[in-house]
Amino acid sequence: MIKKNKKLVFNLNIIGHGESNPILLRISLYPEITKIDFGYVTTDKYNYGGWIKIAPETFIENTVTKERFVLTNAVGITLAPAKRNFESNKDWQYFSLYFPAIPQKDCILNIIEKIKGNKNDFNYYNVPLKMENAIEIK
Question: CB count, 10 Å around CB of 85?
Answer without folding.
Answer: 13
